[in-house]
């Protein structure tokens, strides 16, 4: 009954108000239709529509851009796009893939933005140079004096808050590139307005030198995503002067000063176009000094302008670009305008338009794409491997002048002073006291003149090539083996007329018994080092290989050697960086990995730590650090030797003088301290032998202390017997299997000089006493 009353009530209500309800619904529908018709498109519609093509610049706008003018935009409170009225404004959506074509807007050269910071108050010129033959170093000193004179003339006694500072000078071979060429030096706290100007003087060589490493560092810095693209932009400016030889490279296109041009290019990128003065060239055979003087005068004027104006200011369009306007470099963002001009009128094809089906290709193979060639297309180039040390190179001339015989294109041999001494009966080196190697029976050679370090105490005067990877022509091990033997015998024969040479020792020297692969460079770097070692062993020539702990992969695959040395020149990362100046950025990680490999090989190879102590660098408070390394690798022996000063300007430039050469008493004190620390840690080592003349002491593992006596020497006949048996039937052997007892005169406390030889003193009171007894 209740439901009947409710239904009748609703019907009565509808009949009473149906007309107003119909009118209201109709009105709302009309209003909504009008609102949707005249309202602008919603965001959803805009987002789903096809984007318009980029607008090309009008002729008037292009003229303004070329003249460097800009239109000032009208200021408006709000910028609201006008609604598009009518269906004509809606683009038609095609059923096929969309295609977008247009032109890239040209960049407008704006005013150079000066670096934010304190106002410029002082200009600090820094001269960088690289030199193999000391010629560029001499020119750098000329520039140094010119800038020093300019600084004195510019000095104003009444105004000490602004001026040109005396120049600094650095050899690229003896600096850490990260200190100067990853980020610019920070001004001193007392003078925050100081700005630096780099003056770079470099020669160009057709061989690998430290310049290749330097240019490679700039390349890596520019392309390292972790480093700002213009990481040297805080510099006030830079300028480069290159030295070349027009007899070898008549034109720039053929290579004249090519490395200077490359350096200028990288510096333009890293500094953000801050070339202060044009790139200068000098021919070393004609006008090098006069050209440098002219360049120096222009540079001095620019330094004064920078000081007066507070910066380089604004240049013409293209000023500071890495390359000339008719060259292309796809890696450089500043050349986008040139690439745009070259590509005008070409359509940009959408990825969906590229047909990947069978109808889109004529063959079944992949489409050939060159991802490596920048700039103009060229025919595939046939890469020819360079020689490491060509006969026409300055490196070849420098090494041969030092007494080396260059074998092939990357190997060398030389006789040392101890060989000459042993031939005259005046004593052998420490290797005879420690290991039984007679110096006149030893050949000092290397299959790789290239090294991955630039050690401050290197005897080679910095003239050998450097590199982190092998990228040269590779000579066969047969060629090297025959070449080093011939070179060694030739040099021995040249000693036959030297007064004092003993006939029996000269005859013995014509049969090589030992080979010290420690001459120069990194022997383990040679790709066929194992084959070369096998050739030595086939003629019963023992092998003593020295490495710098920078090539763990090669060390891990190394075949058996008579004795394996690893140079341990520092106990921590920072000291190693300062002393060895390694080229690898991960030098410490490589170093640590080599120690791990040495630990694994300690029961297969006779492993030796070679510590070269340089006073003021790696001696003070480093005993614990060295003990840590010994505990990590557990070598069979530890040689501790004082550095030998080679007395060159190269060493002095690295901060090494006679003051850094430790006395033998200091070496003894260090050895005792290290031995005490090893004993405290429970490591089984002891002081086995010494050679005071070489300023060298040997620590040995107690594995070689048998029946109360040290056995540091090598039984060479036994070694080759075991080696041949291992090759024949695979029988392994250990270092203890071919050890021999150490001679009494070589033990700790006895000096280590062979009593069968005659000690000759060349200076001091001992020389006078010797003359008196004779």
Automatic annotation (TrEMBL):
Residues 435-684 form the Radical SAM core domain. The chain crosses the membrane at residues 17-35. The keyword Amino-acid biosynthesis does not apply. The keyword Iron applies. One of its GO terms (biological process) is wybutosine biosynthetic process. SUPFAM superfamilies: Flavoproteins, Radical SAM enzymes. Residues 43-115, 310-392 are annotated as: Disordered. Its EC number is 4.1.3.44. It catalyses: N(1)-methylguanosine(37) in tRNA(Phe) + pyruvate + S-adenosyl-L-methionine = 4-demethylwyosine(37) in tRNA(Phe) + 5'-deoxyadenosine + L-methionine + CO2 + H2O. Its cofactor is [4Fe-4S] cluster. InterPro entries: Aldolase_TIM, Flavodoxin/NO_synth, Flavoprotein-like_sf, rSAM, rSAM_sf, tRNA_wybutosine-synth, tRNA_wybutosine-synthase. Residues 125-300 form the Flavodoxin-like domain. One of its GO terms (molecular function) is FMN binding. Keywords: 4Fe-4S, Iron, Iron-sulfur, Lyase, Membrane, Metal-binding, Nucleotide-binding, S-adenosyl-L-methionine, Transmembrane, Transmembrane helix, tRNA processing. Pathway: tRNA modification; wybutosine-tRNA(Phe) biosynthesis. Residues 58-75 have a biased composition (Basic and acidic residues). Residues 100-110 have a biased composition (Basic residues). Residues 323-335 have a biased composition (Acidic residues). Belongs to the TYW1 family. This is S-adenosyl-L-methionine-dependent tRNA 4-demethylwyosine synthase. It comes from Aspergillus bombycis. The lineage of its organism: Eukaryota, Fungi, Dikarya, Ascomycota, Pezizomycotina.
